[in-house]
Amino acid sequence: QLYRDARECLTLLSQRLGSQKFFFGDSPASLDAFVFSRLAPLLKAKLPNGKLQQHLKSLQNLCNYCTSILSLYFPWDGGERQLPTVPRGEAEDDPHKRRNQVLSVLVGLVAMLGYAFLSGIVSIQRGGTGPAGRQPMALEEEEEEE
C-alpha cells in the first residue's frame, strides 16, 4: 500500500510538472526545494529495494528536473563524482598550512590559560615555608586542628 501511494505521488508530481522547468514557472519556489529534497536522494542513493527508484527513473521529466537543479545550484556535485585535483601551487603551501594550524592551537591554548589565571580559576602558589616558619597544611589538616 505504501509503495503504491508513493508511486501515485510521483506520478502526480510528474503530471503537475509537465514540461516546465519548475513547478510554478521559470523560477524556483519553496515547493521546488521541498520536492527536490525528497526526489534527489531517492534518485541518487543506492537503495536495497529499488522499486520506487525505478519508477522515478521512468518519469523522465522528474529526472531532468533533479538533474537541472543539481547542475544549477550544486555544480560541483551535479554529475559524476570526480576526485579533486591539487594544483602544483597548493601542494607547496602544505608546510605553511601545518605551521598555521600549530600556531593557531598555541594561540588558543595561551588565551585559555590567560583567561584561567586572570579569572582566578587557576592560581600559582609558591612552595616552601609560610610566614612564621610554618609549613603550609593541606585543607584536611586545617579542619582537624579546629
Short description:
Residues 127-146 are annotated as: Disordered. It holds the Pfam family GST_C_6. With 146 residues, the chain is an all-alpha fold.
Judged by helices, strands and strand pairing, the structural class is mainly alpha
Task: Estimate the strand proportion.
Answer: under 5%
Q: What is the averaged pLDDT score?
A: 79
Based on CA inertia axes, which overall geometry fits? elongated
Poorly predicted spans: none
Radius of gyration: 32 Å
Tell me about the largest β-sheet: none
Number of strands: 0
Helix coverage percent of residues?
55-70%
Region (Disordered): 127-146
Protein name: MTX1 protein
InterPro entries: Glutathione-S-Trfase_C_sf (IPR036282), Metaxin_GST (IPR033468), Mito_Protein_Transport_Metaxin (IPR050931)
Transmembrane segments: 102-124
